[in-house]
Specification:
The protein has one domain. The chain has 14 helices and two strands. It has a two-stranded antiparallel ribbon with strand order 1-2. β1 and β2 form a beta hairpin. The two termini are about 20 Å apart.
Amino acid sequence: MIDTHIEPYALTLTRPAERDLDAAVPGTVAPVLRLTQVALEDEATFWLTLDAINFGSGWFPTLRKREQPTGYRTIAAGIRRRFDQEGRWSAAQLAELTAAEIAGWLDQDPGHELMALMAASLRDLGASVRRLYGGSFAAVVDGSGGSAVALVETLAGWRCFQDVSAYDGRPVPFLKRAQIAAADLHRAGVARFTDLDRLTMFADNLVPHVLRLDGVLWFDPELVARIERGELIEHGSPEEVEIRACAVHAVELIVRASVAASGPPLTAAAVDEILWNRGQAPEYKAVPRHRSRSTAY
Protein backbone atom coordinates (compact mmCIF):
# COMPACT_ATOMS: atom_id res chain seq x y z
CA MET A 1 0.00 0.00 0.00
CA ILE A 2 1.29 3.45 -0.88
CA ASP A 3 0.16 5.70 1.98
CA THR A 4 1.23 8.92 0.28
CA HIS A 5 -1.36 8.29 -2.43
CA ILE A 6 -4.30 8.01 -0.04
CA GLU A 7 -5.16 11.66 0.58
CA PRO A 8 -5.02 12.85 -3.05
CA TYR A 9 -6.80 9.68 -4.12
CA ALA A 10 -9.61 10.26 -1.64
CA LEU A 11 -10.11 13.73 -3.08
CA THR A 12 -10.71 12.25 -6.53
CA LEU A 13 -13.71 10.24 -5.34
CA THR A 14 -17.19 11.69 -5.81
CA ARG A 15 -18.51 13.14 -2.57
CA PRO A 16 -21.75 11.85 -1.01
CA ALA A 17 -23.34 15.27 -1.53
CA GLU A 18 -22.93 14.78 -5.28
CA ARG A 19 -24.42 11.28 -5.37
CA ASP A 20 -27.56 9.55 -4.19
CA LEU A 21 -25.96 7.10 -1.79
CA ASP A 22 -29.38 5.61 -1.04
CA ALA A 23 -29.70 4.52 -4.67
CA ALA A 24 -30.08 0.82 -5.27
CA VAL A 25 -26.99 -1.26 -5.83
CA PRO A 26 -26.02 -1.49 -9.50
CA GLY A 27 -28.13 -3.87 -11.54
CA THR A 28 -30.92 -4.30 -9.03
CA VAL A 29 -33.91 -2.20 -8.02
CA ALA A 30 -34.64 1.38 -6.99
CA PRO A 31 -35.30 2.18 -3.33
CA VAL A 32 -38.87 1.69 -2.14
CA LEU A 33 -39.95 4.07 0.62
CA ARG A 34 -42.96 3.87 2.97
CA LEU A 35 -43.35 0.17 2.27
CA THR A 36 -46.48 -1.69 3.27
CA GLN A 37 -46.04 -4.69 5.55
CA VAL A 38 -46.42 -7.04 2.59
CA ALA A 39 -43.89 -5.07 0.58
CA LEU A 40 -41.51 -5.04 3.54
CA GLU A 41 -41.67 -8.83 3.71
CA ASP A 42 -41.20 -9.13 -0.05
CA GLU A 43 -38.21 -6.79 -0.17
CA ALA A 44 -36.59 -8.22 2.97
CA THR A 45 -36.92 -11.68 1.44
CA PHE A 46 -35.49 -10.53 -1.87
CA TRP A 47 -32.39 -8.90 -0.44
CA LEU A 48 -31.60 -11.58 2.11
CA THR A 49 -32.10 -14.24 -0.57
CA LEU A 50 -29.91 -12.44 -3.08
CA ASP A 51 -27.13 -11.71 -0.60
CA ALA A 52 -27.16 -15.28 0.69
CA ILE A 53 -25.92 -16.25 -2.80
CA ASN A 54 -23.97 -13.09 -3.62
CA PHE A 55 -20.80 -15.11 -4.11
CA GLY A 56 -19.06 -17.22 -6.71
CA SER A 57 -16.94 -14.64 -8.53
CA GLY A 58 -14.32 -17.34 -9.03
CA TRP A 59 -16.85 -19.21 -11.17
CA PHE A 60 -18.34 -16.18 -12.96
CA PRO A 61 -16.29 -16.67 -16.14
CA THR A 62 -17.95 -20.11 -16.48
CA LEU A 63 -21.54 -18.86 -16.05
CA ARG A 64 -23.95 -18.41 -18.93
CA LYS A 65 -24.72 -14.70 -19.33
CA ARG A 66 -27.43 -14.18 -21.91
CA GLU A 67 -28.74 -10.69 -21.15
CA GLN A 68 -26.54 -9.45 -18.30
CA PRO A 69 -22.89 -8.35 -18.63
CA THR A 70 -21.65 -9.72 -15.29
CA GLY A 71 -22.05 -12.75 -13.08
CA TYR A 72 -23.56 -10.72 -10.25
CA ARG A 73 -26.15 -9.12 -12.51
CA THR A 74 -26.99 -12.53 -13.97
CA ILE A 75 -27.71 -13.86 -10.47
CA ALA A 76 -29.64 -10.73 -9.39
CA ALA A 77 -31.75 -10.80 -12.57
CA GLY A 78 -32.59 -14.47 -12.04
CA ILE A 79 -33.74 -13.92 -8.46
CA ARG A 80 -35.77 -10.87 -9.48
CA ARG A 81 -37.38 -12.91 -12.29
CA ARG A 82 -38.49 -15.53 -9.76
CA PHE A 83 -40.01 -12.87 -7.50
CA ASP A 84 -41.75 -11.13 -10.40
CA GLN A 85 -43.17 -14.29 -11.96
CA GLU A 86 -44.04 -16.50 -8.98
CA GLY A 87 -43.63 -14.32 -5.91
CA ARG A 88 -41.09 -14.67 -3.18
CA TRP A 89 -39.88 -17.96 -1.81
CA SER A 90 -41.16 -18.75 1.67
CA ALA A 91 -38.65 -19.78 4.32
CA ALA A 92 -40.05 -23.32 4.13
CA GLN A 93 -39.58 -23.42 0.35
CA LEU A 94 -36.00 -22.18 0.60
CA ALA A 95 -35.26 -24.81 3.23
CA GLU A 96 -36.07 -27.47 0.61
CA LEU A 97 -34.58 -25.76 -2.45
CA THR A 98 -32.65 -27.90 -4.94
CA ALA A 99 -29.72 -27.05 -7.17
CA ALA A 100 -31.90 -27.76 -10.20
CA GLU A 101 -34.50 -25.21 -9.10
CA ILE A 102 -32.06 -22.37 -8.49
CA ALA A 103 -30.24 -23.26 -11.72
CA GLY A 104 -33.54 -22.95 -13.60
CA TRP A 105 -34.14 -19.42 -12.38
CA LEU A 106 -30.54 -18.39 -13.03
CA ASP A 107 -30.51 -20.07 -16.48
CA GLN A 108 -27.52 -22.25 -15.60
CA ASP A 109 -26.56 -25.90 -15.89
CA PRO A 110 -28.01 -27.76 -12.86
CA GLY A 111 -24.77 -29.70 -12.59
CA HIS A 112 -22.65 -26.58 -12.25
CA GLU A 113 -20.74 -26.69 -8.96
CA LEU A 114 -21.88 -23.19 -8.02
CA MET A 115 -25.57 -24.15 -8.20
CA ALA A 116 -25.14 -26.77 -5.46
CA LEU A 117 -23.34 -24.24 -3.25
CA MET A 118 -26.04 -21.64 -3.80
CA ALA A 119 -28.82 -24.12 -3.07
CA ALA A 120 -27.09 -25.15 0.16
CA SER A 121 -26.76 -21.50 1.22
CA LEU A 122 -30.44 -20.81 0.51
CA ARG A 123 -31.53 -23.92 2.38
CA ASP A 124 -29.62 -22.69 5.42
CA LEU A 125 -31.17 -19.24 5.06
CA GLY A 126 -34.68 -20.68 4.90
CA ALA A 127 -34.09 -23.02 7.82
CA SER A 128 -32.61 -20.22 9.95
CA VAL A 129 -35.45 -17.78 9.25
CA ARG A 130 -38.07 -20.46 9.87
CA ARG A 131 -36.47 -21.64 13.11
CA LEU A 132 -35.54 -18.28 14.63
CA TYR A 133 -38.09 -15.83 13.19
CA GLY A 134 -41.20 -17.86 12.47
CA GLY A 135 -40.55 -17.69 8.73
CA SER A 136 -40.60 -13.88 8.52
CA PHE A 137 -37.69 -12.22 6.73
CA ALA A 138 -38.89 -8.77 7.79
CA ALA A 139 -38.63 -9.95 11.39
CA VAL A 140 -34.93 -10.64 10.83
CA VAL A 141 -34.48 -6.98 9.94
CA ASP A 142 -36.76 -5.74 12.73
CA GLY A 143 -34.79 -7.81 15.22
CA SER A 144 -31.72 -5.65 14.59
CA GLY A 145 -33.35 -2.71 16.37
CA GLY A 146 -32.22 -0.25 13.71
CA SER A 147 -28.56 -1.27 13.94
CA ALA A 148 -26.66 -2.47 10.88
CA VAL A 149 -23.98 -3.89 13.17
CA ALA A 150 -26.57 -5.93 15.08
CA LEU A 151 -27.95 -7.35 11.84
CA VAL A 152 -24.46 -8.23 10.60
CA GLU A 153 -23.69 -10.00 13.88
CA THR A 154 -26.90 -12.01 13.56
CA LEU A 155 -26.29 -13.03 9.95
CA ALA A 156 -22.63 -13.81 10.62
CA GLY A 157 -23.71 -16.65 12.89
CA TRP A 158 -25.55 -18.43 10.08
CA ARG A 159 -23.66 -20.75 7.72
CA CYS A 160 -25.13 -18.97 4.70
CA PHE A 161 -23.42 -15.69 5.64
CA GLN A 162 -20.24 -16.88 7.35
CA ASP A 163 -17.04 -15.27 6.09
CA VAL A 164 -14.11 -15.56 8.49
CA SER A 165 -10.61 -16.37 7.27
CA ALA A 166 -7.55 -17.27 9.30
CA TYR A 167 -4.22 -15.49 9.04
CA ASP A 168 -1.17 -16.51 11.03
CA GLY A 169 -3.45 -18.31 13.47
CA ARG A 170 -5.77 -15.34 13.97
CA PRO A 171 -9.39 -15.07 12.78
CA VAL A 172 -10.09 -12.36 10.21
CA PRO A 173 -13.85 -11.67 10.00
CA PHE A 174 -14.48 -10.03 6.62
CA LEU A 175 -18.27 -10.65 6.65
CA LYS A 176 -18.63 -9.26 3.16
CA ARG A 177 -22.11 -10.53 2.37
CA ALA A 178 -23.60 -9.92 5.82
CA GLN A 179 -22.45 -6.31 5.61
CA ILE A 180 -23.68 -5.75 2.08
CA ALA A 181 -27.04 -7.22 3.10
CA ALA A 182 -27.38 -4.46 5.70
CA ALA A 183 -26.47 -1.82 3.11
CA ASP A 184 -28.86 -3.29 0.54
CA LEU A 185 -31.75 -3.39 3.00
CA HIS A 186 -31.09 0.23 3.93
CA ARG A 187 -30.92 1.35 0.30
CA ALA A 188 -34.16 -0.48 -0.50
CA GLY A 189 -36.03 1.25 2.32
CA VAL A 190 -36.59 -1.96 4.29
CA ALA A 191 -34.55 -0.58 7.19
CA ARG A 192 -33.19 2.76 8.31
CA PHE A 193 -29.91 1.99 10.00
CA THR A 194 -28.19 4.76 11.94
CA ASP A 195 -24.77 3.12 12.15
CA LEU A 196 -23.86 2.34 8.54
CA ASP A 197 -20.61 4.22 9.13
CA ARG A 198 -19.48 1.29 11.29
CA LEU A 199 -19.47 -1.10 8.34
CA THR A 200 -16.25 -1.82 6.47
CA MET A 201 -16.00 -2.09 2.70
CA PHE A 202 -17.43 -5.31 1.29
CA ALA A 203 -14.21 -7.24 0.76
CA ASP A 204 -14.27 -8.99 -2.61
CA ASN A 205 -12.00 -9.21 -5.65
CA LEU A 206 -13.11 -6.12 -7.60
CA VAL A 207 -12.38 -3.25 -5.21
CA PRO A 208 -8.81 -4.49 -4.52
CA HIS A 209 -8.36 -4.75 -8.29
CA VAL A 210 -9.44 -1.13 -8.77
CA LEU A 211 -7.20 0.03 -5.93
CA ARG A 212 -4.25 -1.81 -7.48
CA LEU A 213 -4.76 -0.35 -10.93
CA ASP A 214 -5.22 3.10 -9.40
CA GLY A 215 -1.86 2.80 -7.64
CA VAL A 216 -3.18 2.62 -4.09
CA LEU A 217 -2.32 -1.06 -3.54
CA TRP A 218 0.84 -2.78 -4.70
CA PHE A 219 0.99 -6.53 -5.29
CA ASP A 220 4.10 -8.69 -5.45
CA PRO A 221 5.07 -9.05 -9.15
CA GLU A 222 4.84 -12.84 -8.98
CA LEU A 223 1.31 -12.58 -7.55
CA VAL A 224 0.37 -10.21 -10.36
CA ALA A 225 1.76 -12.68 -12.88
CA ARG A 226 -0.32 -15.50 -11.38
CA ILE A 227 -3.44 -13.37 -11.49
CA GLU A 228 -2.88 -12.22 -15.05
CA ARG A 229 -2.38 -15.73 -16.36
CA GLY A 230 -5.71 -16.73 -14.83
CA GLU A 231 -4.42 -18.87 -11.99
CA LEU A 232 -6.95 -19.32 -9.19
CA ILE A 233 -5.78 -17.87 -5.86
CA GLU A 234 -6.76 -20.27 -3.09
CA HIS A 235 -9.36 -18.89 -0.72
CA GLY A 236 -7.85 -18.56 2.76
CA SER A 237 -4.28 -18.55 1.48
CA PRO A 238 -2.04 -15.84 2.96
CA GLU A 239 -1.97 -13.85 -0.26
CA GLU A 240 -5.76 -14.00 -0.71
CA VAL A 241 -6.38 -12.86 2.86
CA GLU A 242 -3.82 -10.09 2.43
CA ILE A 243 -5.50 -8.83 -0.75
CA ARG A 244 -8.86 -8.49 1.00
CA ALA A 245 -7.46 -7.18 4.28
CA CYS A 246 -5.23 -4.56 2.63
CA ALA A 247 -8.20 -3.34 0.60
CA VAL A 248 -10.26 -2.98 3.78
CA HIS A 249 -7.41 -1.05 5.42
CA ALA A 250 -6.91 1.16 2.36
CA VAL A 251 -10.59 2.08 2.31
CA GLU A 252 -10.47 2.96 6.01
CA LEU A 253 -7.52 5.26 5.26
CA ILE A 254 -9.52 6.82 2.41
CA VAL A 255 -12.43 7.39 4.79
CA ARG A 256 -10.07 8.98 7.34
CA ALA A 257 -8.62 11.25 4.64
CA SER A 258 -12.11 12.30 3.55
CA VAL A 259 -12.96 13.24 7.14
CA ALA A 260 -9.89 15.47 7.27
CA ALA A 261 -10.82 17.13 3.98
CA SER A 262 -13.54 19.72 3.47
CA GLY A 263 -17.05 18.60 2.63
CA PRO A 264 -19.14 15.65 3.84
CA PRO A 265 -17.03 12.63 4.85
CA LEU A 266 -17.21 9.35 2.98
CA THR A 267 -18.17 6.08 4.62
CA ALA A 268 -16.52 2.76 3.78
CA ALA A 269 -19.78 1.58 2.17
CA ALA A 270 -19.85 4.71 -0.02
CA VAL A 271 -16.22 4.24 -1.07
CA ASP A 272 -16.97 0.60 -1.88
CA GLU A 273 -19.89 1.62 -4.11
CA ILE A 274 -17.83 4.26 -5.92
CA LEU A 275 -14.96 1.87 -6.58
CA TRP A 276 -17.28 -1.01 -7.53
CA ASN A 277 -18.86 1.21 -10.18
CA ARG A 278 -15.45 2.38 -11.34
CA GLY A 279 -14.48 -1.24 -11.80
CA GLN A 280 -17.18 -1.67 -14.47
CA ALA A 281 -15.24 0.57 -16.86
CA PRO A 282 -13.51 -1.12 -19.83
CA GLU A 283 -10.00 -0.21 -18.70
CA TYR A 284 -10.49 -2.12 -15.44
CA LYS A 285 -12.24 -5.06 -17.05
CA ALA A 286 -9.43 -5.40 -19.60
CA VAL A 287 -6.98 -6.41 -16.85
CA PRO A 288 -7.56 -9.73 -15.02
CA ARG A 289 -8.47 -9.50 -11.32
CA HIS A 290 -7.75 -12.24 -8.80
CA ARG A 291 -10.21 -15.13 -8.76
CA SER A 292 -10.87 -17.41 -5.78
CA ARG A 293 -13.54 -20.07 -5.66
CA SER A 294 -15.39 -19.70 -2.38
CA THR A 295 -18.74 -18.74 -0.90
CA ALA A 296 -17.26 -15.56 0.60
CA TYR A 297 -17.52 -13.36 -2.52
